């Protein structure tokens, strides 16, 4: 036991020394989260206005006009066309000609006056959540405000009661409603996937490229000692990155943190280990740092595309969902989004933890099997 | 079954005892039926031109490459099954510098000391640094050292755990003469303390510092034994010519079938052949006006003649 720890510690301290001398890698480790946050953060922070909107209105009354004027004045909505039938609006949305379709049915005003809370339907193309989300968040407020001047005299009771109008927002193409709140926690997973896999796979292939591998192989050190020794320093790197992103999530983007810190810490640790194990496995396949990098990207792309980070998971075709289920990022996203946004209890996430753990074991076993003890 | 029985005969007094080692890389045979029986406590030279299979053989001996066929022991341990134990008991200095260039001398040594579990680390490292005269440079990055100092560091690192067998792969390539001499003094000091040393090199003068040499060509052992014996065994007669115009004659001698080997040494011309009569006849024909003198054949002449006479290989290999 002590002997095996000794070997791990030897590799670990060597790795720490080398990491401290390699400024480029160190800068990369810190810069990647910052750059990604700025990129995504920019998209998140933009508050797109003047979004093309089609109007499908079946009656023209002063109140309806007030609503339309109020929406227009909010600067979010540009009414580019008025349509007569519902089918047409559907295709407009699907083809991306408009971002919103506003529908006000006949009899809306009468129902409103009677206090029946008639429906006002805003259909949104939510496939680009960053673009549409602010407008969707504001619509109710805009409508109520626009009606305020009309609800005077005998109608003033409507202004103080529950909402006089039932504003229904229909998120087409993105029923899960991925919003900016989902993206920032997701970034933790994306950045860890990218950097953890890349750093470990390159740290090993570097030994091969520089010829130091022969020396390492000639000395009495076992594969698992090399693996743990190489991986451990990067666990701390991953934790630092996580802190950077979570701090940004909290202070810059005001993402709420609803759930348990310790469940999240457990999820992050497990996820970091799984990715490090994968990086180590890649290093047993790649023969150069270049190949290690390519393998990383080869893994990274499906991870961001099929994990539910970019596109809503349930909206993907079944085969894509199956691939997604095999990726640790998919499960990590469910953990971190669940914990941060919905206060999902740890027990309810057991399956996700188990999936990541399984991935780690399989990948680690492959690494141990593939690790070359000779130069062959 | 037969192989098993043979293996039992491998003796424990031998530091290296390998039999018919073969290594193929794809269709290329890098090492072809190499057998070496090297007693403990000696210094042996491993010679041969570039690409002759020296590195590959050394790697098989210390368990870093699986032989394609063949078997053997290193320090009484099976080279295929007991590679871990071999690694603990040998020191292997690679041909290309393979320590960590982004770590200091001290950090490199401390890393090695930790892996071999040498205690107390600080003391062991300090002593090693002092013995090898590296103490003042201990905080320099290994990558910033000159060739000679890198070799010193590597030697220090592979001998720190006091291995029974030292395998040095071209340790003095690209090192200046003074540093080479110091390096060899160090090798003999280590041998004096009981280490068995196998050094690969292609410097002939270094071969003469070894108890025995093994000469490899195209993956096969062409000859092995003491330097004097080998020279004798090759059986060359060598004449040296001095005087005006010695240099101009070399082409004529090279073309002549009776001469095995002709070359300059400074202003002098050396010609060698195995057949004294034929050689003298050739001198009679092309050697007018030069001063001729018979000399002892040098090892280099012997080896070059050897590699031109491939057919000799079958008669001499295996002796030793
Ligand atoms: N890993 C390898 N893959 C393919 N060929 C190799 C490998 N290592 C050595 N060789 C070939 O085997 C032959 C012997 O090489 P080597 O043992 O390095 O010779 P030496 O050390 O005597 O210069 C050379 O032709 C070399 O190209
Ligand atoms: Mg070599």
Automatic annotation (TrEMBL), chain A:
Top-rank taxon: Bacteria
Q: What is its main location?
A: membrane
Location of the ABC transmembrane type-2 domain: 145-374
Q: Where in the cell is it found?
A: Cell membrane
Task: Enumerate the transmembrane spans.
Answer: 24-44, 183-204, 231-253, 259-280, 292-313, 348-368
Query: Heme: is it a keyword of this entry?
Result: no
Q: What's one Pfam family here? A: ABC2_membrane_3
Note the Gene3D superfamilies from the entry: abc type-2 transporter like domain
Q: Does the keyword Ribosomal protein apply?
A: no
The protein's UniProt keywords, in alphabetical order, are: Cell membrane, Membrane, Transmembrane, Transmembrane helix, Transport
According to its UniProt entry, this protein's organism is Thiomicrorhabdus heinhorstiae
Membrane topology qualifier: Multi-pass membrane protein
User: Which family does the entry's similarity section mention?
Assistant: Belongs to the ABC-2 integral membrane protein family.
Can you name this protein?
A: ABC transporter permease
From TrEMBL, chain B:
> InterPro entries attached here?
AAA+_ATPase, ABC_transporter-like_ATP-bd, ABC_transporter-like_CS, P-loop_NTPase
Q: Which domain of life is it from?
A: Bacteria
Please list the residue ranges annotated as the ABC transporter domain.
16-243
Gene3D superfamilies cross-referenced by the UniProt entry: P-loop containing nucleotide triphosphate hydrolases
MF (Gene Ontology): ATP binding
Keywords attached to this entry: ATP-binding, Nucleotide-binding
Q: Which organism is it from?
A: Thiomicrorhabdus heinhorstiae
Q: Which CDD domains match?
A: ABC_DR_subfamily_A
What name goes with this protein? ABC transporter ATP-binding protein
